[in-house]
Each structure stands twice: as C-alpha cells, then as structure tokens.
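Side project, low priority. Logging it here so it doesn't get lost.
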Amino acid sequence: MDKHEIMRRRKVIFAGCLSKRLIKKGSRNIHKELRCCVCGKPLVRYIPYDKSYVTLSKMYYLNVLGFNFGMCRYISSCYNYISKRKG
C-alpha cells in the first residue's frame, strides 16, 4: 500500500466521521485496546501491573456511524508500520 492509498482511505473515514478527538501519547482516558483502522498498528495497550490502559502514540479517536475507531495521527506513521510489516 502506498501513501496515496493510505491518504484515500483516511479521507473516506474522515468524510463519514461524526466526531473526532485527538488523543495525546501517554493519555489514560481510553479504556480498551485499540488498533489503527487503516494500518493495524497498536495505539492503546493494557498495562497489567497498573491495571490501566495507556496510549502509545498520538491518535484520533473517531465515531463513525456509532462505531468507535482509532487512527494514527500521521500518515507517515501508518506508512512506516505497513512497510515494516511487509518485511
């Protein structure tokens, strides 16, 4: 997947978005594990000894037609994760 395909997918998701919030790295106000809906990168991880969830990188928290999704803040983050995953 190239950067133009990633941009196209993100644009479609933002077009159908009812609300979006920008969540900063290290935030603990999301209470479930999330992955990016474009590239699959883990965005929120559970910390067992703290019994809490922590955000691993800047992300958008989106509400699309009543469903909540996470998405990487930067296109380059999605592209780098996909290219690393391909090997």
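Brief comment: The radius of gyration is 13 Å.
Revisit when time allows.
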